[in-house]
Amino acid sequence: MTVVTVETRSPSGPESTILGPAMLEIPLILSKKPGAAMRKGTETLKTASIIQSILKRIVYPRHFWSGIMHQRAMAHTARVYDDSQLSLYAEILPGDFLNLGHFEDPRLQPQDITLRDIVRAQARHAELVAELIADSTSPVLDVGCGMGGLIRVMLAKGLSPVALSPDRNQIRHVRAKYPTVTIVETKFEDIPLDEHIHRYGTIVTSESLRYLKLDRALPLMEKLLKPGGRWIACDSFRVGEERSRSGYVWADFERRMVRSDWRFVCQRDHTPNVVPTLRFVYMWGNDIARPGVRFAFRKLQRKHPRAYYILAEVIEAINGRLDQNLDLVNPDAFVAHNKYMLLSMEKTS
Description:
The protein has helices spanning 47-59, 61-75, 84-92, 115-131, 149-156, 168-177, 193-196, 214-224, 250-259, 271-303, 305-310, 312-328, 331-337, and strands spanning 5-10, 13-18, 139-143, 160-164, 182-184, 200-206, 225-238, 262-269, 338-347. It is of the alpha/beta class. A seven-stranded mixed β-sheet has the order 5-4-3-6-7-9-8, sandwiched between helices. Strands 1-2 form a two-stranded antiparallel sheet. A hairpin with a 2-residue loop joins strand 1 and strand 2 (13-18). The protein is globular, with a radius of gyration of 23 Å. The protein starts with a strand and ends with a strand. Mean pLDDT is 80; it is low at 1-45 and 61-79.
Protein backbone atom coordinates (compact mmCIF):
# COMPACT_ATOMS: atom_id res chain seq x y z
CA MET A 1 0.00 0.00 0.00
CA THR A 2 1.59 3.28 -1.07
CA VAL A 3 0.60 6.51 0.68
CA VAL A 4 0.87 9.65 -1.42
CA THR A 5 2.03 12.73 0.49
CA VAL A 6 2.39 16.39 -0.32
CA GLU A 7 4.74 18.81 1.42
CA THR A 8 3.22 22.02 2.75
CA ARG A 9 4.87 24.99 4.45
CA SER A 10 4.14 26.28 7.92
CA PRO A 11 5.88 28.76 10.24
CA SER A 12 7.71 25.86 11.89
CA GLY A 13 8.93 24.39 8.61
CA PRO A 14 7.76 21.82 6.03
CA GLU A 15 5.04 19.36 6.93
CA SER A 16 3.97 16.17 5.18
CA THR A 17 0.24 15.85 4.69
CA ILE A 18 -1.54 12.75 3.45
CA LEU A 19 -2.92 13.52 0.04
CA GLY A 20 -6.26 11.84 -0.57
CA PRO A 21 -8.58 12.32 -1.67
CA ALA A 22 -9.72 10.53 1.49
CA MET A 23 -13.31 11.48 0.71
CA LEU A 24 -13.34 8.89 -2.07
CA GLU A 25 -12.89 5.94 0.32
CA ILE A 26 -10.63 4.02 -2.05
CA PRO A 27 -7.31 2.23 -1.57
CA LEU A 28 -4.41 3.29 -3.77
CA ILE A 29 -2.60 0.04 -4.50
CA LEU A 30 0.54 0.86 -6.45
CA SER A 31 2.90 -1.82 -7.74
CA LYS A 32 6.68 -1.74 -7.52
CA LYS A 33 9.24 -2.00 -10.33
CA PRO A 34 8.21 -4.50 -13.02
CA GLY A 35 9.77 -7.91 -12.61
CA ALA A 36 11.48 -7.06 -9.34
CA ALA A 37 10.70 -8.35 -5.87
CA MET A 38 9.21 -6.02 -3.32
CA ARG A 39 11.58 -3.95 -1.21
CA LYS A 40 12.82 -5.29 2.12
CA GLY A 41 9.96 -5.51 4.63
CA THR A 42 7.35 -6.38 1.99
CA GLU A 43 6.41 -9.59 0.23
CA THR A 44 6.12 -10.43 -3.44
CA LEU A 45 2.53 -10.93 -4.56
CA LYS A 46 1.97 -14.62 -5.27
CA THR A 47 -1.16 -15.97 -6.84
CA ALA A 48 -0.84 -19.26 -4.97
CA SER A 49 -0.69 -17.55 -1.58
CA ILE A 50 -3.82 -15.50 -2.40
CA ILE A 51 -5.75 -18.61 -3.40
CA GLN A 52 -4.53 -20.50 -0.34
CA SER A 53 -5.57 -17.71 1.99
CA ILE A 54 -9.04 -17.40 0.42
CA LEU A 55 -9.67 -21.15 0.47
CA LYS A 56 -8.42 -21.51 4.03
CA ARG A 57 -10.83 -18.93 5.31
CA ILE A 58 -13.75 -20.44 3.41
CA VAL A 59 -13.11 -24.17 3.89
CA TYR A 60 -11.65 -24.44 7.40
CA PRO A 61 -14.49 -24.49 9.95
CA ARG A 62 -12.67 -22.33 12.49
CA HIS A 63 -11.97 -19.57 9.97
CA PHE A 64 -15.44 -19.85 8.45
CA TRP A 65 -17.12 -19.52 11.86
CA SER A 66 -14.87 -16.60 12.82
CA GLY A 67 -15.87 -14.86 9.60
CA ILE A 68 -19.57 -15.29 10.36
CA MET A 69 -19.20 -13.99 13.91
CA HIS A 70 -17.11 -11.05 12.76
CA GLN A 71 -19.73 -10.12 10.16
CA ARG A 72 -22.51 -10.36 12.75
CA ALA A 73 -20.58 -8.19 15.19
CA MET A 74 -19.99 -5.56 12.53
CA ALA A 75 -23.64 -5.62 11.53
CA HIS A 76 -24.66 -4.86 15.12
CA THR A 77 -22.18 -1.99 15.44
CA ALA A 78 -23.63 1.01 13.64
CA ARG A 79 -21.08 2.95 11.62
CA VAL A 80 -22.20 6.15 13.25
CA TYR A 81 -20.84 5.02 16.62
CA ASP A 82 -17.22 4.69 15.49
CA ASP A 83 -16.65 6.66 12.31
CA SER A 84 -12.96 6.19 11.55
CA GLN A 85 -13.49 7.84 8.15
CA LEU A 86 -14.36 11.16 9.79
CA SER A 87 -11.34 10.79 12.05
CA LEU A 88 -9.16 10.37 8.96
CA TYR A 89 -10.64 13.51 7.40
CA ALA A 90 -9.68 15.45 10.52
CA GLU A 91 -6.08 14.27 10.24
CA ILE A 92 -5.88 15.23 6.58
CA LEU A 93 -7.55 18.63 7.10
CA PRO A 94 -6.29 20.05 10.41
CA GLY A 95 -8.54 22.47 12.24
CA ASP A 96 -11.13 19.97 13.52
CA PHE A 97 -13.60 20.89 10.77
CA LEU A 98 -15.55 18.37 8.71
CA ASN A 99 -17.67 20.79 6.66
CA LEU A 100 -17.54 21.70 2.95
CA GLY A 101 -16.11 25.13 3.69
CA HIS A 102 -17.11 28.59 2.49
CA PHE A 103 -15.05 30.33 -0.19
CA GLU A 104 -15.75 34.02 -0.59
CA ASP A 105 -14.62 33.80 -4.22
CA PRO A 106 -16.64 31.00 -5.89
CA ARG A 107 -14.62 31.40 -9.10
CA LEU A 108 -11.50 29.82 -7.63
CA GLN A 109 -10.20 26.90 -9.68
CA PRO A 110 -8.88 23.72 -8.04
CA GLN A 111 -5.29 24.14 -9.28
CA ASP A 112 -5.18 27.45 -7.39
CA ILE A 113 -6.39 25.95 -4.08
CA THR A 114 -4.18 24.49 -1.34
CA LEU A 115 -5.09 22.39 1.68
CA ARG A 116 -4.47 25.49 3.78
CA ASP A 117 -7.12 27.31 1.73
CA ILE A 118 -9.57 24.48 2.42
CA VAL A 119 -8.95 24.75 6.17
CA ARG A 120 -9.48 28.53 6.07
CA ALA A 121 -12.72 28.07 4.14
CA GLN A 122 -13.92 25.53 6.71
CA ALA A 123 -13.16 27.98 9.52
CA ARG A 124 -15.11 30.69 7.69
CA HIS A 125 -18.06 28.31 7.37
CA ALA A 126 -18.06 27.78 11.15
CA GLU A 127 -17.87 31.54 11.77
CA LEU A 128 -20.93 32.14 9.58
CA VAL A 129 -22.88 29.54 11.55
CA ALA A 130 -21.82 31.03 14.89
CA GLU A 131 -22.77 34.54 13.75
CA LEU A 132 -26.42 33.43 13.54
CA ILE A 133 -26.55 32.53 17.24
CA ALA A 134 -28.77 35.25 18.74
CA ASP A 135 -28.91 34.03 22.35
CA SER A 136 -25.40 34.45 23.75
CA THR A 137 -26.24 33.51 27.34
CA SER A 138 -27.98 30.13 26.97
CA PRO A 139 -26.23 26.83 26.14
CA VAL A 140 -25.87 25.91 22.46
CA LEU A 141 -26.36 22.25 21.50
CA ASP A 142 -24.06 21.20 18.65
CA VAL A 143 -25.76 18.13 17.18
CA GLY A 144 -23.24 15.92 15.40
CA CYS A 145 -20.32 17.95 16.71
CA GLY A 146 -17.73 16.18 14.56
CA MET A 147 -14.18 16.80 15.77
CA GLY A 148 -15.17 20.00 17.57
CA GLY A 149 -14.23 22.73 15.10
CA LEU A 150 -17.46 24.65 15.67
CA ILE A 151 -17.07 24.11 19.43
CA ARG A 152 -13.75 25.97 19.29
CA VAL A 153 -15.30 28.88 17.37
CA MET A 154 -18.17 29.15 19.85
CA LEU A 155 -15.83 29.09 22.83
CA ALA A 156 -13.79 31.91 21.28
CA LYS A 157 -17.02 33.97 21.06
CA GLY A 158 -17.76 33.40 24.75
CA LEU A 159 -20.66 31.01 24.09
CA SER A 160 -21.49 27.86 26.07
CA PRO A 161 -21.50 24.93 23.63
CA VAL A 162 -22.67 21.42 24.46
CA ALA A 163 -21.29 18.70 22.17
CA LEU A 164 -23.53 15.83 21.07
CA SER A 165 -22.35 12.82 19.08
CA PRO A 166 -22.80 9.04 19.18
CA ASP A 167 -19.35 8.57 17.61
CA ARG A 168 -16.64 7.29 19.95
CA ASN A 169 -13.74 8.78 17.98
CA GLN A 170 -15.34 12.20 17.96
CA ILE A 171 -16.25 12.13 21.65
CA ARG A 172 -12.74 11.01 22.61
CA HIS A 173 -11.19 13.80 20.56
CA VAL A 174 -13.53 16.56 21.80
CA ARG A 175 -13.18 15.45 25.42
CA ALA A 176 -9.38 15.57 25.21
CA LYS A 177 -9.21 18.90 23.37
CA TYR A 178 -12.05 20.76 25.09
CA PRO A 179 -12.19 19.33 28.64
CA THR A 180 -14.50 22.06 29.96
CA VAL A 181 -17.22 21.39 27.39
CA THR A 182 -20.25 19.32 28.38
CA ILE A 183 -20.55 16.21 26.19
CA VAL A 184 -23.64 14.15 25.44
CA GLU A 185 -22.66 10.79 23.98
CA THR A 186 -25.79 9.63 22.19
CA LYS A 187 -27.85 9.98 19.02
CA PHE A 188 -29.93 13.14 18.92
CA GLU A 189 -33.19 11.17 19.03
CA ASP A 190 -32.04 9.40 22.21
CA ILE A 191 -31.05 12.47 24.23
CA PRO A 192 -32.51 12.18 27.78
CA LEU A 193 -35.32 14.71 27.91
CA ASP A 194 -35.46 14.97 31.70
CA GLU A 195 -31.93 16.43 31.70
CA HIS A 196 -32.24 18.68 28.64
CA ILE A 197 -35.83 19.84 28.28
CA HIS A 198 -36.08 23.59 27.43
CA ARG A 199 -32.37 24.00 28.20
CA TYR A 200 -31.02 25.44 24.94
CA GLY A 201 -31.31 28.86 23.37
CA THR A 202 -29.88 27.46 20.11
CA ILE A 203 -29.54 24.05 18.50
CA VAL A 204 -27.09 23.68 15.61
CA THR A 205 -27.08 20.90 13.03
CA SER A 206 -24.05 21.63 10.88
CA GLU A 207 -24.22 19.09 8.05
CA SER A 208 -25.97 16.62 10.34
CA LEU A 209 -29.58 17.46 9.42
CA ARG A 210 -29.55 14.86 6.65
CA TYR A 211 -29.12 12.09 9.25
CA LEU A 212 -32.13 13.12 11.35
CA LYS A 213 -35.61 11.65 10.99
CA LEU A 214 -37.87 14.70 10.94
CA ASP A 215 -40.85 12.86 12.45
CA ARG A 216 -38.84 12.47 15.64
CA ALA A 217 -36.45 15.38 15.35
CA LEU A 218 -38.94 18.27 14.97
CA PRO A 219 -40.95 17.56 18.16
CA LEU A 220 -37.67 17.00 20.00
CA MET A 221 -36.25 20.33 18.81
CA GLU A 222 -39.29 22.08 20.26
CA LYS A 223 -38.88 20.33 23.62
CA LEU A 224 -35.16 21.02 23.89
CA LEU A 225 -35.30 24.71 22.91
CA LYS A 226 -36.27 27.46 25.30
CA PRO A 227 -39.27 29.58 24.26
CA GLY A 228 -38.08 31.78 21.40
CA GLY A 229 -35.05 29.54 20.83
CA ARG A 230 -33.67 28.96 17.34
CA TRP A 231 -32.53 26.01 15.28
CA ILE A 232 -29.60 26.72 12.95
CA ALA A 233 -28.98 24.26 10.14
CA CYS A 234 -26.58 24.14 7.22
CA ASP A 235 -26.68 21.27 4.77
CA SER A 236 -27.14 20.27 1.16
CA PHE A 237 -30.65 19.63 -0.14
CA ARG A 238 -31.77 17.85 -3.27
CA VAL A 239 -33.38 19.78 -6.14
CA GLY A 240 -34.21 18.82 -9.70
CA GLU A 241 -33.98 15.21 -10.80
CA GLU A 242 -33.06 12.66 -8.14
CA ARG A 243 -29.36 11.87 -8.25
CA SER A 244 -28.66 10.76 -4.72
CA ARG A 245 -30.77 9.82 -1.74
CA SER A 246 -28.51 11.75 0.61
CA GLY A 247 -30.25 14.72 2.19
CA TYR A 248 -33.79 16.03 2.03
CA VAL A 249 -35.59 17.40 -1.01
CA TRP A 250 -35.59 21.18 -0.48
CA ALA A 251 -39.19 21.78 -1.55
CA ASP A 252 -40.43 18.96 0.72
CA PHE A 253 -38.38 20.25 3.66
CA GLU A 254 -39.69 23.79 3.19
CA ARG A 255 -43.31 22.62 3.15
CA ARG A 256 -42.73 20.37 6.15
CA MET A 257 -41.32 23.23 8.21
CA VAL A 258 -44.26 25.52 7.39
CA ARG A 259 -46.79 22.78 8.24
CA SER A 260 -45.00 22.19 11.55
CA ASP A 261 -45.23 25.89 12.48
CA TRP A 262 -41.55 26.68 12.04
CA ARG A 263 -40.59 30.08 10.62
CA PHE A 264 -37.46 30.74 8.55
CA VAL A 265 -35.66 33.65 10.18
CA CYS A 266 -32.77 33.34 7.73
CA GLN A 267 -32.32 31.55 4.41
CA ARG A 268 -28.99 31.83 2.60
CA ASP A 269 -28.03 29.86 -0.48
CA HIS A 270 -24.29 29.12 -0.17
CA THR A 271 -24.11 26.66 -3.05
CA PRO A 272 -21.56 28.70 -5.06
CA ASN A 273 -19.37 29.04 -1.97
CA VAL A 274 -18.94 25.28 -1.42
CA VAL A 275 -18.25 24.51 -5.09
CA PRO A 276 -14.48 25.31 -4.92
CA THR A 277 -14.05 22.56 -2.32
CA LEU A 278 -15.88 20.11 -4.57
CA ARG A 279 -13.74 21.15 -7.53
CA PHE A 280 -10.60 20.52 -5.47
CA VAL A 281 -11.71 17.05 -4.34
CA TYR A 282 -12.94 16.12 -7.81
CA MET A 283 -9.65 17.18 -9.40
CA TRP A 284 -7.60 14.92 -7.13
CA GLY A 285 -10.02 12.03 -7.52
CA ASN A 286 -10.47 12.27 -11.28
CA ASP A 287 -6.96 13.31 -12.31
CA ILE A 288 -4.86 11.34 -9.82
CA ALA A 289 -6.75 8.66 -7.89
CA ARG A 290 -8.71 7.22 -10.82
CA PRO A 291 -5.72 6.91 -13.22
CA GLY A 292 -3.56 5.57 -10.35
CA VAL A 293 -6.00 2.85 -9.44
CA ARG A 294 -6.55 1.79 -13.05
CA PHE A 295 -2.81 1.75 -13.69
CA ALA A 296 -2.33 -0.52 -10.69
CA PHE A 297 -4.99 -2.93 -11.87
CA ARG A 298 -3.55 -3.04 -15.39
CA LYS A 299 -0.15 -3.84 -13.87
CA LEU A 300 -1.71 -6.60 -11.79
CA GLN A 301 -3.45 -8.04 -14.86
CA ARG A 302 -0.21 -8.12 -16.84
CA LYS A 303 2.10 -9.41 -14.12
CA HIS A 304 -0.32 -11.68 -12.21
CA PRO A 305 -3.18 -12.66 -14.55
CA ARG A 306 -4.45 -15.46 -12.33
CA ALA A 307 -4.70 -13.18 -9.31
CA TYR A 308 -6.44 -10.59 -11.47
CA TYR A 309 -8.93 -13.23 -12.63
CA ILE A 310 -9.68 -14.28 -9.03
CA LEU A 311 -10.09 -10.68 -7.89
CA ALA A 312 -12.04 -9.53 -10.96
CA GLU A 313 -15.30 -8.91 -9.08
CA VAL A 314 -13.48 -7.06 -6.28
CA ILE A 315 -11.68 -4.90 -8.84
CA GLU A 316 -14.94 -4.15 -10.61
CA ALA A 317 -16.54 -3.17 -7.29
CA ILE A 318 -13.64 -0.83 -6.44
CA ASN A 319 -13.84 0.84 -9.85
CA GLY A 320 -17.61 1.19 -9.47
CA ARG A 321 -17.29 2.69 -6.01
CA LEU A 322 -14.67 5.13 -7.28
CA ASP A 323 -16.92 6.27 -10.12
CA GLN A 324 -19.88 6.56 -7.75
CA ASN A 325 -18.00 8.70 -5.26
CA LEU A 326 -16.57 10.89 -7.98
CA ASP A 327 -20.08 11.45 -9.28
CA LEU A 328 -21.18 12.64 -5.83
CA VAL A 329 -18.46 15.30 -5.70
CA ASN A 330 -18.73 16.31 -9.35
CA PRO A 331 -19.20 20.09 -8.96
CA ASP A 332 -21.33 20.52 -12.09
CA ALA A 333 -23.65 17.69 -11.09
CA PHE A 334 -23.84 19.00 -7.52
CA VAL A 335 -24.96 22.45 -8.69
CA ALA A 336 -27.52 20.91 -11.04
CA HIS A 337 -29.09 18.63 -8.43
CA ASN A 338 -28.37 20.21 -5.03
CA LYS A 339 -28.42 23.46 -3.13
CA TYR A 340 -26.41 24.16 0.01
CA MET A 341 -28.41 26.21 2.50
CA LEU A 342 -27.64 28.04 5.74
CA LEU A 343 -30.85 28.36 7.76
CA SER A 344 -32.08 29.82 11.02
CA MET A 345 -35.55 28.74 12.18
CA GLU A 346 -37.81 29.31 15.14
CA LYS A 347 -41.08 27.84 16.32
CA THR A 348 -44.08 30.16 15.80
CA SER A 349 -46.49 28.52 18.26
